[in-house]
Amino acid sequence: MNAAPEFEPAPGDTVLAARHIVKTYGGTHALKGVNFDIRRGKVTTLFGENGAGKSTLMKILSGVTTPTSGSIELDGQSVTFASASDARDRGISIIHQELSLAPNLSVRDNIFMGREIRGATGVDFAEEARQTRLLMAELEEDIDPLTLVQDLRLGQQQIVEIARALSVDSRILIMDEPTSALSATEVEVLFRVIRDLTARGVSIVYISHHLEEALQITDYAVVLRDGAITATANARHINLEWIVRNMVGENFDLGSPPTGYAFGEIALSVEDVSVADASSSERSVVDGLSLDVHNGEIVCIYGLMGAGRTELLECIAGRLHPSGGRILLGGNDISRLGIAERIARGLVLVPEDRQRDGLVQTMSVGANLSLASIGSFVRGMFLSRSQERSLVEASIRDVHVKTAGGSAPIGSLSGGNQQKVVIGKMLTTNPKVMLLDEPSRGIDIGAKAEVFRLLSERAARGLAVIFSTSEVAECLSIAHRIIVMHRGRISAEFGADATKEEIMAASGEAVVSDHEEHRSHKRDRR
Amino acid sequence: MTDASPDRSRAPRVSPRVSTDGFSLAKLLLEGRAFFALIAIIIVFSLLSPYYFSVGNFLTMASHVAIFGILAVGMLLVILNGGIDLSVGSTLGFSGVIAGFLMQGVQLTSFGVILYPPVWVVAVLVCVLGALVGLVNGVLIAWLKVPAFVATLGMLYVVRGAALLMTNGLTYNDLGGKPELGNTGFEWLGFNRLLDIPIGVLVMAVIAIIGSIILNRTAFGRWLYASGGNERAAELSGVPVKQVQVSVYMLSGICAAVAGLILSSELTSAGPTAGTSYELTAIAAVVIGGAALTGGRGNIRGTLVGAFVIGFLSDGLVIIGVSAYWQTVFTGAVIVLAVLLNAIQYRRRVKLPSPAGGSPTSPQKDKATTADPALERTAG
Known about the structure:
Number of strands of chain B: 4
Helix content of chain A: 25-40%
Order of helices and strands of chain B: HHHHHEEHHHEEHHHHHHHHHH
Largest sheet of chain B: 2 strands, antiparallel
Oligomer: heterodimer
């Protein structure tokens, strides 16, 4: 770990300094005592995997949330931000990763939302429109101020979001994934704007998954991993390899692929499946994808946000309807079946968002665990309480849920144990194929390892497992086969012996040409 | 879970607060609030009026409560599902009208005969009608994605209009039937007593028991709680959420039809405007009974107590001679108070752990922590 900073900043150089920032959510520590400096007139890029704590840190610096402990110094003065608008008044603004625009309002109204320009008779719309036009000219985007935001494409919406942040005349501008929907030309324009801003003394904090792109623009690099800073460096001294090494690190042992048995028949076969984009019908989020998974095999799907992993898994599970192709379970076409019928036939999904799609917060641990297999303990017309209890107890033991008992409220569990409940709920249906969308999201490393051990035990007993992840280290744990998705297609396929760099390269995260040959070689091998 | 240690150290500091007697009393009062409110109402009115505290008066009041109680049980099912059914008052009125119409005899002109269906056939047909109204509601909401509020508001008008059209705005007065036609006995529901208890009250009790069994002991009940608590999670767990949704509106419609039969039997007449605004009283009973309008939380016991609170309060006000206008004000105040306490109860669940820790954490994530120190230890 090259944790030692490779430079000593001049004292007056730092415009904002965060010291020992700790942020906990329930039992999970999102940030563990982070020190972070923003330098005047420079671009500081924060690198880190999903869940490393980048967005949490930025939300704290922009006043959206408050830290559990730690202090923030602005120009050497200790400050606390009461709200995002408080931070904005002090010259800090943020461009959020998720767009925070009101789609039903015009571009002009969005840019001046909450700080409308007052005229003699109410809002001075003409002045607002004039300033909007100036901003759009600066960003080289031909958007009329009166266009409704919902009529813009995603990239243009992102431009509006950027324009809004620019309109405030901030001293510190935080950009959380500003380029994720931008075209290459738009990115160039954005970079030119960033250079103009820094020349005027504005400090930029930049976050991006496109590592190479970020390397072009940044002056300083800071790497965050599991809520702690692992490295800081001047951008002149680093390269892609340095970033990846510090981002991923020498990870906790998440296990290795289960061995000592032969794979069974093909359990699940996805044939040329496409899923149309919900917002625009001409685009496909999953684009003619085919995939076979055998009994006992563990397949990992890696990809960036928006690569189509969630849509693919939800389509297989029956939540989304495919716009083309078919899905075979044990040789039978299940494309027309509902979710309940697919579960009955042994195909289950552990969804990505535990709180939204996985758990019923109003029910107990036991009722959540038994929800998917109610049919197995109905006797005559009624539920058999004793059978339900034994099923719940067996499941709690089976997936090692740490709880006071089946009647405990589900909210009393830590994130990792809640995730085990969602997995346990699906396992009690005795599935043949289990899909897990980001099963490690928001759970700590110990729980992560436990979840993976559980999956590999089940695979050894014949369960076919497909799990998705956006952390490279997880691909290289229990998976027999790693599939990389990019823009709705499979961009590469690796065995368990792939390297982090080649997986990241194939995802479009960083294009490392050296590995191209290597990759095609690997693909043939299996 | 190595990094959960600060939570663990926080837990012992929470425990003294949680286990103090004052706290438990407050919690008891909060959770049993509808029940305590009912007892308070009975005590206050018994002191104010010598006529209030008697078995005879309680039974009379209970028979008034029965109508709302039956509606409220149906309404509870809908609210547990996260919906609302504004059409039950109209369905109640329409059911009475249909019952009255059937009791007058159905003229089949093509055969030149008049059919006088026996009372049990009338009752069954009316219940089927209630279920049909519910079916329309359910299909609009579950399959056609009309918001429940709007769909049932529309049905409120349509069904009331149908009742007015049936009778041309008039009332069926003679529901007694004739012995020679074999259709007597309609007044049994509203007038008779079994072991001194009005039949209406017994019907309410039977419906409540059936409702309780459905909610607690059947797969349907579990599906209902699950899809009301989190529809997306329920659907992904294989719960037939749409069928559940349609079913609750049908059950609510049946409850309204039964209430309509009892009301018209009590009055031995069926008017097309009967039951106007009863849906609001039913919703009030459910809310006072502690159910969450967002779905997933509530039970039959609470709802019945809620119905009794409203009924005993308004009858008590009548007995001590308070004007009808003031009754409306009091009922409204009780509803607002109930919702206020609901809000406190559900917020409390979320907020409990943070005072001891003193850490500002976001409310959503705070749900992941717990009020119970024993759980905290095991979870950490």
